[in-house]
Design a protein that fits this description.
Number of domains: 2
Bound molecules: pyridoxal-5'-phosphate
Strand content: 15-25%
Shape: globular
Order of helices and strands: EHHEHEHEEEEEEEHHHHEEHEEH
Number of strands: 14
Distance between the termini: 28 Å
Amino acid sequence: MDIFNFSSGPAMLPKPVLEQARDEIMSLGGIGMSVMEISHRSKEFEKVLHGAESGLRRLLNVPDNYRILFLQGGGAMQFSMVPMNLLAPGMTGDYVLTGAWGEKAVKEAAKFGNAKTIYTSVADGFRSVPEQEELSFSSEAAYVHYTSNETIDGVEFKYDLEAGGIPVVCDASSNILSKPIDIEKYALIYAGAQKNIGPSGVTVVIIREDLLKRIPDGLPALMDYRSFAENDSMPNTPNTWGIYLIGLVCRWLDDQGGVAGIEKRNIEKAAVLYNALDSSDGFFIGHAKREARSLMNVTFRLRDERLEDLFIDEAESLGLSGLRGHRSVGGLRASIYNAFPKAGVERLVELMSDFAARNG
Ligand SMILES: *Cc1c(COP(=O)(O)O)cnc(C)c1O
């Protein structure tokens, strides 16, 4: 039986990518050595690094005045690196909180400087995202930080946030590459790879070059974006395997028609699932408000929460894995990133209607 893996991250990788990685694991491009065994300074790895970088640049249409960096430390290390690099004394970091990851980001930023929550949807249980017009920014803001898709809560911005010239910093860990975005609206975008770009252990940072000039001297080298920008992402040994896989994922995305092509499929996949929630007569209850629904993480509950364990067990036995919601919020969550096949969503909605009929 095919297993459909709804895990929120590390999450499914495209099957053709895993197959190619398997085929090449002992010998990268016929060199007789694994990509994991060769020097990160070698010609062969240079090609791998360049492939990953140019893949991201092509797919996201990243202009020349932006650098694409590969770091380690996960998405979460960026919660610290962003303020260390960009939050000058006397300025504020403005934070827009629409879920659990944004909350963590502002908490870390507060350790370095004046981090200010300028908007939070905590009062409605993180079910919504603000309209652009609802936001107003501090006059002394060094940057505005937001989370384009809140992975745990399942809410997603449908627009690129604008802040009237204040640099916009975006945690796009769980929806980068899921749809076209306008990079020029951002000063810095970061994403841990393990949701939608590759394996865990590598973080992509896309940063506008002029921001590099604002970075204070004296930061630890590996916490300073300039070290990565000046050394081709290699001030030290990078995650070579992770970067290799990112390159393969980019090529797979090209074959899917790029981010515009994959967006179409993502919309279709999510619609199947949200329609199932909406047509269940309240047996299943979606968490996010309609207009904020994430295309990547579909969060929901059963009206009778006592049935949730049973539902998850039955799903598991049908090869539908990883549906339990994050431990902090409970309920269910179907993570359906780029690599997740529509057939898996269809199997899930079949179970939902059958389960509701039997237990309704
Ligand atoms: C998963 C996730 C993170 C944390 O990523 P790590 O790689 O575990 O540090 C941060 N932000 C968002 C939006 C995420 O989904």
